[in-house]
Amino acid sequence: MKAKDKKQGSRGQSRQWRDSNPTKNVMALINKFRGRKICVVGDIIADVYIFGKPYRLSREAPVVVVKYEEERIYPGSAGNTIHNLLALGAHVFPLGFIGSDDAGNKLIRYFSRYKTVDMDGFIRHDGETITKTRILAGDTHTSKQQVIRIDRDIDKHFSKHERNLLKKRLKEISPHMDGFIISDYGHGAVDSEISAYVRNLVKNKVVVGDSRYNLKELKGFTMITPNESEAYNLSSLNERYDIEEVGRRILKLMDVAALLITRGNKGMSLFLKSGEVYHIPISGKDDVTDVTGAGDTVCATVALSLASGGDFYTASLIANYAAGVVVMKRGTATVTADELKKAIKTVKSDKL
Which of 43, 47, 184, 296 is catalytic? Predict the structure, then answer.
């Protein structure tokens, strides 16, 4: 059942690295990112970070009292995917729902700072914005640690009118896009109807899918990017099975051209419909700072690479280095093209 990696291989065999893909070609591909038009359909939430300093024990309960210092808000989930694309130089066309509350207003102001984002795809609804609030505490000269996370979900089914607005906008912009991302976090923006609509509307274009709970709805897309746990669930296999068995089963089940499984400190595994399997080691250090949003970075980078003309292997390799950069940052983070180039330059050219 266990499959051994082979450094030399051919169709149907696994291998760890390809022998020839010079650094300059990878850099040239990253240079093509700027101005690429990518549409992101998905759940846009607000990641709220509250920072404080612990200074005494509470008299009310056996807990530490944290003195408030500051609060920051960042785009989360599909919003983080959008944010990463913007940081990499893409022109982004978001399609998703944002509440008409203070958190929603802050998200709109956050994105409006960018000249390369199309604001017309943010559909405001009369409810609250989904938020994930993280409280981080620590002394002034130490790294603050997350104490607790409070999620504010909304029990809302978007109206037919709201969903029709999304589909109408998608139809209008689709001929002009270089690629698409479906970012489904289970909050209602993406369902089987929207997935089918995208699949039928944008044939012969790059579509990368990422879904927390419903990967089966993303059949027929160009590529899907589950993490290892999601991949095992999708394959209906348990962890006694090798990752290659899992990947091959998913390829048959999902009818995608490529499957990229992110595997934490084990790196990534890329499976191609043509039969090749590539195991890509982790980029950077093992002692990561924060994995929050790293999957969004992978999805954004691989989609942008493919839309810029890259092949599946090169796109996955670049995404691996992008993830290696963001996990060394605190919170919901992004990577710029310059940061990505710097990370790749530290690698020997014969390893690219």
Answer: 296
